[in-house]
Amino acid sequence: MDKLSNILIVAGTHGNELSGIYTHKLIEEGLFIADRSTFSSTSVIANPTAVRHQCRYMDNDLNRQFATRSDATSCPSNEALLARQFIDKYASNNNQLIVDLHNTTSNMGATLILLSENPFYRKMGAYVKQRMPAANILFESHKPWNELPYLCTCGEYGVMIEVGAQSHGSLQYGTLELMKEMLTAVLDFVEKHNLNQLGELSNYTAYYYTQEITYPLDSSGMRQAMIHPTVCGRDFEAVKPGEPLLATFFGYDVHWQGEQDVYPHFINESAYSKANIAMALAEKQLVSVNKP
Ligand SMILES: [Zn+2]
């Protein structure tokens, strides 16, 4: 793979996720150094109106607008328009990596979300895991690149950093530190990749997204269950076959029906409340770094 010559650091894709927005501010003020000897970094706010209003989005989720170019309508939503402008400005830049910064209300610590399994990303996961052993590496590589709706997939290369748990609209010292630490590791990885200085990287365990679990609803759209107390707050901890995922209000539980252990994450993410998504599930796998 070619050397990367520019890193586009994106914050405020969701306007109420403050770790990225304040990382952007630190970069602008020279308090966080995002350049390296082999590349320069550009830091941008993706949805300034939502940032000003301190909300996730104005009309709809900007981070779900990038699967395909939406048809031109006479009255596009604020975010559809932003997505088009973003694509026009950045998507065709060569040798650019987009790093999109997010917060989650789920207890996911620092999670690097990789959307492809090509050797570059497998190595990035290995390097970040080596630098931050407590970090989670999550592959969402179940769809082809151009079918993924995320902002960071609008160009050739992109990843997301998720840090939490942090309430949207709030700013926590430890969560900002985790974001800075993971962003630093990604930037250092690119520098070493460019210099051919990655050296020996070890195989590692990562999570692979499989599905979402939604709440059962009654006829009026109210939930009939909550996250089970044995799962609540335990992102990336194993749930074995037959163990509960949800606790209904009727005294029985909803159990995991699969044949393998699963690893819930984005548990009780407040931004997914509207869609009644209780959690996402992943499988755990060993990643071979040197597989071609
Ligand atoms: Zn977000």
Describe it for me?
It is a single chain. The protein has two domains: 6-202, Zn peptidases (Aminopeptidase, 3-Layer(aba) Sandwich), CATH 3.40.630.10; 211-287, N-terminal domain of TfIIb, CATH 2.20.25.160. The chain is 22% helix and 24% strand. It contains five helices and eleven strands; from the N terminus they run βαβααββαββαβββββ. The strands form two sheets. Strands 2-1-3-6-4-5-7-11 form an eight-stranded mixed β-sheet. It has a three-stranded antiparallel β-sheet with strand order 8-9-10, with no helix packed on it. The radius of gyration is 19 Å and the shape is globular.
Main sheet record: 8 strands, mixed
Structural class: alpha/beta
Distance between the termini: 12 Å
Number of helices: 5
* CATH domain topology of the largest domain: Aminopeptidase
Hetero groups bound? zinc ion
Q: Secondary-structure element sequence? A: EHEHHEEHEEHEEEEE
Strand content: 15-25%
Radius of gyration: 19 Å
Shape: globular
Residue stretches low in confidence (pLDDT < 50, at least 5 long) are none
Domain AstE/AspA barrel-sandwich hybrid: 203-284
Protein name: Aspartoacylase
Active site: 162
Enzyme class: hydrolase
